[in-house]
Design brief:
The chain is mainly alpha-helical. It contains 16 helices and 8 strands.
Length: 402
């Protein structure tokens, strides 16, 4: 599906990073300048975005309803001090600049850019005004529909094998203002639902400081490896560029956070993952493995809320805003924000390593799998040490005992 044409600028950038392409690692290492550009640009603009957010009061205050909205749950805010939002713009603004600089516009890139702009505008308004859930879902649907009616069609799905499930029972296509329009049924209907699921499942991860940035960074790096292996220049370039911007953002968002992604980032990360995975030609099962943690968590939360609160319709279900997500449960077990970040990142890498294995990259699977286990071991050791220390801490009454 990747028919993108690189600009001369991107060709020059990749030539700068060009190493021995006959080596097994050369095709990955040639992208280091793209990573570096994303990292530097994002690092420069993050403080400016933070100052802008503070100046206009676009912040998250712990224990306070945002904009006094009744549907907002202040218990979900687990950071300790007022923190600026809009951090996601440090990812999306460089990306909007990079796309036309790196690639020549075609119907695929045009559709992605339009959908991206819709999401960015809607999510920034959400950061500023704290929009109701149905309004948020509204602009997400519009962005997903733009993709579904573009030439990006979900014509078939392939799982672990090369078996293909055909999703083109009917096809409709035309041109509007010289822009090609295409829709396949039921494939593109499934595509709309898939994009919405990816957007909201990743968005729901962002309830603990630095978590959505760390998790998304892991997924984009895994997606980069897959995209290089499937020879998708568009997906590999953008995924490593986004990884650079997220690396800078994570530096500022790491607990205790100096800035947060906010809706302007959380609403976009899942969308980009779903689109870049589709363009890279990754199997549907591979994409599910990349997003397994937030998708399973989202499904669990939806079922839990339905059983617990018994909403009368989907709109009422959307309005429920409790603390039933995985990171909230880990918090109740006395894990710190840093530990929660490392746990969910380790799980993402652990499951994502099997997505890498599905592409035949055994050595990369071993590397990522081993890294995940090391992170998990570090968190487990620190947690046990903390628990033991708390148990050994003398009670106020112990000094009076014999």
């Amino acid at each position: 599906m990747d028919s993108s044409v690189p600009t001369k600028l991107l060709e020059k950038i990749l030539n700068i990073g060009n190493v021995d392409m006959t080596s097994q690692y050369g095709k990955y290492l040639s992208y280091w300048p793209v990573l570096l550009i994303g990292l530097i640009v994002s690092f420069i603009i993050i403080p400016l975005i933070g100052k802008l957010a503070i100046k206009f009061g676009i912040t998250y205050k712990p224990g306070v309803r945002r904009k006094n909205r009744e549907f907002d749950n202040p218990q979900k805010a687990i950071h300790e001090k007022e923190t600026p939002a809009l951090g996601g713009l440090a990812v999306t603004i460089p990306l909007l600049i990079a796309i036309p600089l790196f690639f020549r516009f075609d119907p695929v890139i045009s559709a992605i850019t339009i959908a991206l702009l819709i999401l960015i505008i809607g999510s920034v308004l959400d950061d500023v005004l704290n929009l109701p859930a149905k309004v948020q879902l509204g602009y997400q649907i519009v962005a997903a529909v733009v993709i579904a009616f573009s030439v990006i069609d979900l014509s078939n799905i392939s799982f672990f094998t090369n078996d293909i499930l055909n999703l083109t029972q009917s096809t409709w296509s035309t041109n509007i203002l010289s822009m090609p329009i295409s829709f396949v049924f039921p494939g593109d209907l499934i595509l709309i639902c898939w994009i919405l699921l990816c957007i909201n499942s990743v968005k729901w991860v962002g309830g603990s400081p630095g978590l959505v940035e760390s998790y998304s960074l892991s997924i984009f790096l895994l997606l980069f490896v897959i995209s290089v292996r499937t020879y998708s220049l568009f997906s590999s370039t953008l995924s490593i560029f986004i990884s650079g911007t997220l690396l800078s953002l994570l530096y500022f968002a790491f607990p205790p956070p100096k800035i947060m992604s906010g809706s302007s980032g959380k609403s976009v990360y899942g969308f980009l993952i779903s689109i870049l995975a589709l363009i890279s030609g990754a199997k549907f099962s591979t994409t599910i493995m990349l997003l397994a943690l937030p998708i399973i968590d989202a499904i669990y939360v939806i079922i839990y809320r339905y059983i617990t609160y018994k909403p009368k319709n989907p709109i009422e279900l959307m309005k429920i805003n409790d603390t039933s997500h995985l990171h909230h449960q880990l918090l109740k077990l006395n894990f710190t924000s840093v530990q929660i970040l490392l746990i969910e990142t380790a799980v993402a890498l652990l499951v994502g390593s099997f997505a890498i294995l599905a592409t035949g990259a055994l050595r990369y699977f071993a590397l990522i799998f081993g890294t995940a286990l090391v992170i998990g071991f570090i968190v487990f050791t620190n947690y046990k040490a903390k628990t033991k220390k708390e148990k050994e801490k003398p009670s106020p009454e112990s000094k009076y005992s014999y």
